[in-house]
Structures
1.
Amino acid sequence: DQQVKQNSPSLSVQEGRISILNCDYTNSMFDYFLWYKKYPAEGPTFLISISSIKDKNEDGRFTVFLNKSAKHLSLHIVPSQPGDSAVYFCAASGGNNNDMRFGAGTRLTVKP
Amino acid sequence: KAGVTQTPRYLIKTRGQQVTLSCSPISGHRSVSWYQQTPGQGLQFLFEYFSETQRNKGNFPGRFSGRQFSNSRSEMNVSTLELGDSALYLCASSLPAGLYGYTFGSGTRLTVV
């Protein structure tokens, strides 16, 4: 059951521009949302998170926005850098489960 | 502090065999979760253990099983391997899930031939 969906398998942006990665979820019981970044041959690393009581969380170049009514969240990276090129996973947890559910990932390529 | 350690890093097995993968969590983390990553499918949740008890299980057949020991180390076992089991298997440890997120190991790349 795909409770967390990332509908764009890939995204390509120019260095210095904004990258916007999107994620949708279906389970209204989720109350924590996270983004992970993954390089080849490594495990995913935690990037940024947001609680359902907030609609925005910012950490340096990374900002996550949450729209609960639309069950949608997005990750903005400004400005994008070539080192940001990786696969980004959206994840959600909460409700009756203690586990975390992940989307299929979006491969971001930032071109110099 | 040491991160999450998964062994082995790479494994090649034949169809029908069984395999055991190991995960040592970060010291103090009592929750261990397992995920399967395949191209286009993202991270599929296998199961989560806390204090030696399986708390949650994903939609995988019974050939996939796991356990957790008193020191929080965890193993997962796949019996009667199929070609479709070829994937990167990731282990993650955490304090309770939530804003703290998970810390992942580097994974075990399993290839079934």
2.
Amino acid sequence: DGGITQSPKYLFRKEGQNVTLSCEQNLNHDAMYWYRQDPGQGLRLIYYSQIVNDFQKGDIAEGYSVSREKKESFPLTVTSAQKNPTAFYLCASSKDSFNQPQHFGDGTRLSIL
Amino acid sequence: GQQVMQIPQYQHVQEGEDFTTYCNSSTTLSNIQWYKQRPGGHPVFLIQLVKSGEVKKQKRLTFQFGEAKKNSSLHITATQTTDVGTYFCAGFLYKLSFGAGTTVTVRA
């Protein structure tokens, strides 16, 4: 079955540590996205990529970094500069742009130790 | 900047009753998408509305896009326990902006 796979499901970060969240899709979609979800705030866009080797900042990119070396993969690194990283992180993809329905992974829940 | 507001934030419904959730944008949208997130799950795409005044139905769910393409509504009739979850609207102009969602609980 085609879909989006996020790993790990749960992740714990120590102070000063960078952590990387994995996102892989086999839907042959060009566009991929990272969202952060906090209670009562909906989904906020962190980064997005519409083509390999290119990505754009979203609304809350500070403290995060991404890469898009392969069409299937869009990993997100939460750096130590992100002072409030505890949240539910969702990866999504769409055929080619925001104008298309987005397919979401199961999410990664990140907590601080 | 582009903002999408959703009301109410919470909706407690008696099983069998109807309810409506509303989505309002500060700017005219190209289209609007609706998603449902079950507790502990991820958002799942429900529908996309593109045309001014468009109305679409999915079984007991009716979606409407306003004439000015700045607001939308989701009406659910005869609510069932399977309707529990958070319903998000997402408005598209140059990017997709999600509302904060309406979290629905159902009293049996």
